[in-house]
Design brief:
With 156 residues, this protein is of the alpha+beta class. 38% of the residues lie in helices and 21% in strands. The radius of gyration is 22 Å and the shape is elongated. The chain starts with a helix and ends in a 6-residue tail after the last helix.
């Protein structure tokens, strides 16, 4: 999803100058006032600002996003533009690991997610003799997913 879709709720607004109301149209109702105050506060100093809040997506429901940006000023101290990034962090845990969503892409993808987690846990134990069976399981799951795709089954 684009920043325009995440923040303004409309991807077609990308690369257009927007009013504050237009720019925050996709922000979760409970976060709008807080985010508006943060944006106004950020416009008063040229330092980097990082904010996390929720947005409403018609296609994807409520999402969590992380915004990082900086407002730039001309020689007279007038704001000229703000540049930043928006990252959808809905599926990321606080420690940086991906959040597991059961059933999102079907049971074989669930098995693959768990298989990767098991492999990583086994690798962390240092028990090398368990890595080969874990690898074999991941390869078998991968082959089955590929076989299903080649037969025309779609991933969810």
């Amino acid at each position: 999803m684009s920043a325009a879709e995440l923040l303004a709720g409309d991807a077609s607004l990308a690369e257009r100058e927007l009013s504050m109301t237009e720019a925050l149209a996709g922000v979760h109702t409970d976060d709008v006032a807080w985010l508006r105050s943060q944006i106004l506060q950020a416009g008063s100093a040229p330092d980097v600002r990082i904010r996390e809040h929720r947005v409403n997506s018609n296609a994807h429901g409520v999402r969590r996003v992380l915004c990082r940006g900086r407002t730039y000023y001309d020689g007279a101290g007038q704001r000229t533009f703000t540049l930043g990034i928006v990252i959808d962090i809905t599926d990321v845990e606080a420690d940086g690991r991906r959040r597991f969503t059961r059933g999102a892409n079907g049971p074989l993808d669930d098995a693959a997610e768990h298989g990767v987690a098991a492999y990583e846990a086994i690798e962390a134990t240092g028990l090398r003799h368990l890595l080969e069976p874990a690898r074999a399981l991941l390869m078998a799951i991968g082959r089955e997913i590929a076989r299903g795709l080649s037969k025309g089954r779609r991933r969810h």
